[in-house]
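Continuing the series of single-chain predictions for the mutant panel. This is the parent chain; the variants come on the following pages.
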Amino acid sequence: MDDEWFTPLADELAQCLLDARACATACEELLAEAQERLDPDAQRRLLSAVVAAAAVSRVLVEALDRPRQLVLAAAEVCRDTTLQAAETLQELALPLDSAAAIEALRRTSASAGAFVEAARRR
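Parent structure:
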């Protein structure tokens, strides 16, 4: 891989990766708490809301050594899925404190978007 493509984007990429890792962790922690506190139907709704965003966030972190097009595609999918997950999780209004996960999802969406936009300008 040509490692030089992301050098001018180092700040945006670093923030994106930090946020993606934190997002996946926050979603996984919320899902673990849900297993202890929610009924099976509520667990399924929560899982449906956040599993894709958590998985894509993890994939983005692992995709760094892949070609530029794949990293950018993963960042775009991450931006979109995390934003959708934040909105859906907010609407679910489950009897859990989901504020940290919602914030992590939104922060990840914003930093993935900033990374994608910075890459497009280059």
